[in-house]
Inverse folding.
């Protein structure tokens, strides 16, 4: 199998070299400002004189051939400390009201009016930054990895200091931005970057870009950009040193275990140290993540654990260097494994204190990127948890135009609770070595991933490797792909996310999209997805074959219908309800059919819906379920939503019938651009729990916050408290 992967790799490396070229464009010239620009949304500085503005934005939605209805003009300037960007966003008619989901930083979604700038400082058209502002001056920033191909490559959780202001006028609005050079990573003396601008306008339901982007691709794609030429070499960014100390007080009461912790203080903090022009060293001591929003619960009908994304700020800069090795459900590294361990008294996963950590990431030069991390967690004898030391190293080399090859090393060591300190337990290590090749053609039509990973543990020497090959072609109408995986029986990445091992998998995918000349429908078309899993001893163990049809409107509303056929062989007893009922027997198999639907209404409306549902057979019975969210937006100051999951399972004896309900009302109030209050309640009868979480956030200075967080869990029948906690945390971002 590995010979096949290597042969495929060489073949598609060759394909990548000969892909077509894009037509050249002169780009945009940034002149040097003679004096600092006052970021106030008023373009009265000399640098914003009439010459040098760029316009001619092109639609990428609903078409990719028409000029923008709402025209946009942009200009870039710089000095020794800042890159400045100005935008004039015109409207064909007078307009005072715009769509903004809230005043909270990091807005996202097609319904938000706004302009965003994609900046690629190393000209690799793969990694970069996004800075965006809406008409009410709300900011958003993100890091982009892997070319911005998928929504997961767009990381809004990254925060840093920069400045912007917006002003609204009768027939246009204006944005003025100042990005400190110390916030960005770039080569000293650089004369050229890559840049693109995209605007979302809710009134005309259009997305427009300065660099034309085919309508089948996301506007965040870094493959589609033009040259940003500076009139003279950029100065060194200078020292980029930040200290982010915090102080917190917290108390908790676990009524089930009878443990009450009185109000007590804690201290810690992070440091960010710029090393050279493109490297960053992140340090943390006694980190506290109490302000990180808790995961929204889901009804789990799967046999395996559920993946939740990383939200902790410390792990997020250059996150793709670590997190993008492997593929979906075969991840060698998953940072949420750090700081979470198993309570040996209850068998539940609980938070485990992180003592300290260090993380180095960035570019060595235009072709090489490096990442290294070491984290130490604490011993917790009361819960039977041994501390762990995690070491992760990644090295990535750009090849050809936009592709890259990376190698990763992971080592997890177990600490000795009896000896204490940093003593290790011999033999209780878990290590992984892997190599990945990521294919990105210049025009983004060909993408692929090829990798081989191997784990090393005491006593396990055979079948510890995993290989994968995947190739996808995307054009205006046609998308087709094929992937193959072989996961070894003893492959065990304890610091990763690989919920099952010991199988081979093949998965073709194909879809065709029509773009009709219609005032209502933007696109529609059929699709086919399939996956088959098998083992040498048992043969086929899992199948899922799906036929679907997508219809998307010009209003961003869409619906997808599907017909599914699934086959499942049980390797272990499994209760489909996950409520403690009689399990289905190990060694039994089931083939069943069901219908599915996914839908979204127009997100620009004050009231919108998004949901998925299925109905049909399920193992030896029947299932009908719906999961969705109804959202009511009150201007830009309040978002009230209701998450609902209802699953009706009807199973023959000795299994039992159940109705699983998860209800989660949520209230998100944004009083100003710096004061936010979020409260949500979750009732989940699958785990017999009511959860309340409320969080008040005051951003009293740039990237500096005061948080007050209260969490409580109750028994639904008596409303008696299971566990409650209160945290107040203050942090401050100090640039040195």
């Amino acid at each position: 199998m590995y010979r096949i992967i290597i042969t495929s790799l060489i073949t598609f490396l060759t394909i990548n070299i000969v892909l077509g070229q894009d037509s050249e464009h002169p780009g945009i010239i940034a002149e040097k400002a003679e004096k600092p620009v006052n970021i106030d949304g008023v373009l009265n500085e000399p640098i914003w004189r009439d010459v040098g503005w760029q316009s001619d934005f092109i639609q990428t939605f609903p078409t990719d051939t028409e000029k923008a209805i709402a025209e946009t003009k942009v200009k870039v300037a710089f000095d020794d400390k800042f890159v400045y960007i100005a935008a004039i966003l015109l409207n064909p008619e007078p307009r005072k009201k715009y769509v903004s989901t809230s005043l909270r930083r990091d807005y996202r979604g097609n319904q938000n009016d706004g302009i965003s700038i994609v900046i690629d400082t190393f000209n690799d058209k793969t990694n970069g930054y996004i800075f965006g502002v809406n008409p009410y001056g709300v900011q958003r920033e993100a890091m982009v990895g892997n070319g911005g191909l998928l929504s997961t490559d767009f990381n809004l959780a990254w925060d840093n200091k920069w400045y912007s202001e917006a002003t609204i006028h009768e027939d246009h609005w204006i944005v003025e931005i100042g990005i400190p050079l110390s916030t960005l990573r770039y080569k000293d003396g650089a004369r050229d970057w890559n840049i693109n601008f995209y605007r979302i306008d809710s009134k005309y339901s259009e997305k427009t870009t300065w660099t034309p982007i085919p309508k089948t691709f996301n506007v965040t794609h870094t493959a589609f950009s033009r040259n940003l030429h500076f009139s003279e070499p950029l100065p060194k960014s200078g020292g980029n040193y930040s200290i982010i100390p915090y102080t917190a007080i917290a108390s908790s009461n676990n009524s089930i275990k009878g443990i009450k912790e009185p109000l007590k203080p804690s201290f810690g903090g992070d440091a960010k140290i710029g090393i050279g022009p493109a490297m960053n060293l992140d340090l943390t001591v006694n980190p506290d993540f109490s302000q990180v929003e808790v995961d929204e619960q889901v009804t789990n009908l799967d046999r395996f654990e559920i993946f939740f994304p990383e939200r902790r700020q410390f792990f997020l800069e250059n996150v793709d260097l670590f997190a993008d090795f492997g593929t979906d459900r075969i991840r060698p590294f998953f940072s949420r494994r750090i700081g979470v361990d198993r309570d040996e008294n209850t068998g539940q996963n609980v938070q485990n204190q992180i003592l300290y950590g260090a993380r180095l990431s960035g570019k060595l030069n235009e072709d090489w990127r490096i990442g290294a991390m070491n984290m130490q967690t604490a011993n917790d004898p009361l819960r039977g948890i041994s501390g762990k030391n995690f070491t992760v190293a990644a090295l990535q080399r750009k090849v050809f135009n936009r592709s890259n090859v990376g190698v990763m090393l992971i080592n997890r060591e177990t600490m000795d609770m009896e000896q204490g300190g940093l003593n290790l337990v011999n033999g209780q290590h878990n290590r992984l070595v892997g190599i990945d090749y990521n294919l990105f053609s210049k025009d983004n039509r060909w993408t692929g991933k090829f990798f081989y990973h191997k784990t090393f543990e005491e006593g396990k020497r055979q079948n510890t490797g995993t290989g994968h090959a995947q190739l996808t072609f995307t054009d205006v109408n046609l998308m087709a792909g094929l992937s193959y995986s072989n996961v070894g029986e003893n492959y065990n990445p304890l610091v990763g996310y690989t919920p099952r091992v010991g199988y081979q998998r093949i998965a073709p995918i194909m879809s065709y999209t029509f773009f009709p000349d219609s005032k209502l429908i933007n696109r529609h078309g059929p699709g086919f997805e399939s996956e088959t899993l098998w083992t040498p001893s048992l043969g086929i163990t899992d199948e899922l074959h799906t036929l679907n049809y997508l219809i998307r409107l010009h209003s961003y509303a869409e619906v997808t219908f599907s017909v599914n056929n699934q086959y499942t062989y049980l390797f272990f007893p499994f209760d489909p309800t996950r409520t403690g009922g009689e399990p289905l027997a190990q060694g039994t198999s089931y083939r069943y059919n069901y219908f599915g639907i996914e839908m979204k209404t127009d997100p620009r409306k004050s009231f919108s819906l998004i949901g998925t549902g299925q109905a049909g057979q399920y193992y030896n019975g029947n299932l009908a379920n719906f999961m969705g969210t109804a959202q009511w937006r009150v201007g830009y100051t309040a978002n009230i939503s209701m998450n609902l999951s209802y699953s009706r399972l009807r199973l023959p004896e000795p299994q039992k019938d159940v109705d699983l309900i998860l209800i989660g009302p949520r209230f998100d109030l944004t009083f100003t651009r710096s004061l936010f209050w979020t409260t949500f309640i979750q009732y989940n009868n699958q785990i017999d729990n009511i959860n309340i979480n409320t969080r008040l956030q005051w951003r009293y200075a740039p990237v500096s916050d005061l948080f007050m967080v209260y969490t409580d869990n109750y028994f639904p029948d008596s409303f008696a408290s299971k566990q409650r906690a209160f945290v107040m945390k203050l942090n401050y971002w100090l640039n040195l």
In short: Residues 25-230 form a domain with the Immunoglobulin-like fold (CATH 2.60.40.1190). Helices lie at 2-17, 320-323. The CA atoms of residues 509 and 529 lie 5 Å apart.
